[in-house]
Specification:
Elements lengths: L5 E5 L20 E2 L2 E2 H11 L4 E6 L4 H7 L3 H9 L3 H12 L2 E6 L6 H6 L2 H4 L4 E4 L3 E4 L4 H12 L2 E7 L9 E5 L5 E6 L10 E9 L3 H7 L10 H8 L5 E5 L3 E4 L3 H12 L6 H11 L1
Parallel strand pairs: 1-4, 1-6, 4-5, 8-12
Antiparallel strand pairs: 2-3, 6-11, 7-13, 8-11, 9-10
Helix pairs in contact: 3-4, 8-9
The protein binds uridine 5'-triphosphate (UTP).
Uridine 5'-triphosphate (UTP) binds next to helix 5.
Length: about 280
């Protein structure tokens, strides 16, 4: 079985749910306290054993490249001013792993974005992480998916239970057995939903997914949907669910973003006491 060593992170979406800030700041770069969301996601990859990452980016998202690149001027200044702790933080970002970029000329959907990774991936299984789905977990969520991949030698989708009243917002999983996936129903009504497990922004797929992406027609929203390509591959290959532990935040919507900031801050020794006090005060 081939090991999962590469990850694709599509970050070329328009972020329309988070306007006006996303007019000039990519939602994936919005900070959770003092670190961009995307950095947490790259750290999740590195801690899961990923060695190379491809970002699918767009002309409006240049600061993503700047953030993960070496910053010679800043590093020189920090060194000159003896700010060694800060220097270490900045230097580590560019050393985390090998990062490559390709641009999606037009945001035609997640399927269109991931298809651009074909030559980078070649003939290997790979991870897909959505740049606006943030996980808070001791064991990295991607590592949990890789464990399931290695157990079954099959494609894997990261899933979690969601409130039954909110199934209409997600791709809902239909199970064949406890962990084997039969299908995914996009944004069903409560009555139509075959379960309350949703696919949430973490996938491991085999390279045959590119055959499906090549043949893909436009789907929901007149865009090429990655889910549709997975549904087609499901006719030929097995897909398993990784019911991952710990908390998921969709930072692409305002409430998810606020919750993530509060949860991560309440975990920090330098912030939690004052923040707790403040939250009680304003209740
Ligand atoms: P989303 O559907 O959450 O992102 O895609 P979006 O299209 O930016 O969101 P809204 O609805 O307009 O607010 C999940 C991930 O896939 C990327 C996004 O950047 C996000 O990280 N994506 C989406 C692409 O790279 N290209 C696309 O064409 C669409």
């Amino acid at each position: 079985m081939k090991k999962v060593k590469k990850a694709v992170i599509p970050v070329a979406g328009m972020g329309t749910r988070f306007l006006p800030v996303t007019k000039s700041v990519p939602k994936e770069m919005l900070p959770i306290i003092d670190k961009p969301t995307l950095q947490y996601i790259v750290e999740e990859c590195v801690e899961s054993g990923i060695e190379e990452i491809l970002f699918i980016t767009s002309p409006y998202k240049r600061n993503i490249e700047d953030h993960f690149d070496q910053s010679f001027e800043l590093e020189t200044r920090l060194e000159r001013n003896n700010k060694l702790k800060e220097l270490e933080v900045v230097k580590n970002i560019s050393k985390m792993c090998k990062i490559y970029y390709t641009r999606q000329g037009e945001p035609l959907g997640s399927g269109h974005a991931i298809k651009l990774a074909k030559s980078f991936i070649g003939d290997e299984p790979f991870a897909v992480l959505y740049g606006d789905d943030l996980m808070k977990s001791e064991t990295p969520v991607l590592k949990q998916l890789i464990d399931v991949y290695e157990k079954y030698d099959a494609n894997v989708i990261g899933v979690q239970e969601v409130d039954r009243n909110l199934v209409y917002k997600y791709g809902i999983i239909e199970f064949e057995t406890e962990n084997k996936i039969k299908s995914i129903i996009e944004k069903p009504s409560i009555e139509e939903a075959p379960s309350n497990f949703a696919g949430l922004g973490r996938y491991i797929v085999k390279p045959e997914i590119f055959n499906e992406l090549d043949k893909l027609d436009r789907g929901k929203g007149n865009e090429y949907q990655f889910t549709d390509a997975m549904l087609n591959l499901m006719k030929r290959q097995d897909f398993y669910a990784c019911k991952f532990k710990r908390t998921y935040y969709d930072i692409g919507n305002q409430l998810g973003y606020l919750k993530a900031n509060i949860a991560f801050a309440l975990d920090r020794d330098d912030l939690k006491n004052e923040l707790n006090k403040y939250l009680k005060e304003i209740k």
